[in-house]
Amino acid sequence: MRSRIARGLVLFLCIASLGAAQGPNSSGTEHDRSKLLQTSTVAPQAYPKHPKKKPDPYQVGTASWYGEQFDGKQTASGEPFDMYDLTAAHPTLPLGTRVKVTNLHNRKSVVVVVNDRGPVVDGRIIDLSYAAAQALGFEEKGLQRVRLDVVHYPTEAYLRPVAQLP
Asked: Which residue among 6, 69, 112, 162 has its CA within the 20 to 30 Å range from the CA of 132?
């Protein structure tokens, strides 16, 4: 068994040394050497490529925005609404969740924080602040088809009412 392995190893080394002996010689022109160097580079080890599957969207649907009429009023999170913050109202996502909103018409996207409940109109999946709608390029339209992807859920401490914190 050992002699078979030894013979195989010797054969492999002989073949490998023959390939190494065929390197460039000094008599070629600079152009020939650079061409040889380009073609003789060792390719990186090939690993099977597994295309990364894009995650499914959390939701796809119609977004609207709200602004001046609600500016300064209390949101469901208790903080005052600021139409110039990147915030949103969503009916079910936990308050404090960060969501990437992508405008499916122009592919612009923005990350917003859910700090309110809504929308109150049927058929809409999210209400964005004026600043978020502006970033997505649909503040003039009022409505736009969007894709929602959850970026980060809030920590447990954020979900508990302040009175229950230790």
From this structure: 162
